[in-house]
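User: Hey, my collaborator sent me this sequence without any context and asked if I could get a structure. I don't really work with proteins. Can you help?
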Amino acid sequence: MAGHSKWANIKRQKARVDAKKGKTFTQLSRAIIVAARNGGPDPEANFQLRTAIEKAKAASIPNDNIDRAIAKGAGTYDSDEAQLESIRYEGYGPGGVAVLIEALTDNRNRTAADLRSAFSKNGGNLGETGCVSWMFEQKGVVILEGEINEEELLEISADAGAESYEMNDDPGAEVFTEATDLEQLNRTLIEARFPVKEAELRWLANNYVEVTDPDQARSLLKLMDALESLDDVQNVTANFEMAEELMFESSRS
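Assistant: No problem. I've predicted the 3D structure and written it out in structure-token form, which is a compact way to encode the shape of the chain:
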């Protein structure tokens, strides 16, 4: 739909409007800890860890903090901190919009309470496990930023097993693949000298709710901000889309 953006694009555009920092040091450090715990402390052999480190460096997290997070994940750092666990939460935003939240927490009760508060203050509600996850599918996404030859991208991506791609106006593109094929696609695009910014796993909605009401748009964007500002939250996904003009107007309200 021309002139409309889904949540991933709204999120990227809104970040520019708000001129806010990205993820907090706590959020990025936790992602490194869990990646090192799950796949080992060697970035060369652990794609999840490598991408988490790249995001941390892009946010100017000091190397000492990164090294400490890797050591915590590997169990080689003497710390009294509680063990982090990955949990997925689900809920509904204003107008019945489906919201999926990925969190890393050392205290489930605190995280659930914080999420419930964010939902209730912004016209939504935290739901039960499974209430909206059936509407989403996890995919691997490689994000490109810069001038791109679309014909070349199509050829290289197809050879690497990509499922689809979307060109952006920034300029840039996003290339989508099965979650298990993300590392291979990322490596192929880097070797082909495409301007790879980052690679990530992302939940994509199978259907979208179009938001046209300004009040609902404002409430939804406030809810997204409230959820993403929580240190325990790593990623937020929702199945709404709205006209770009409405998004910019609602962001300024």
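In plain terms: The CA atoms of residues 160 and 185 lie 6 Å apart. You can pass these tokens on to your collaborator as they are.
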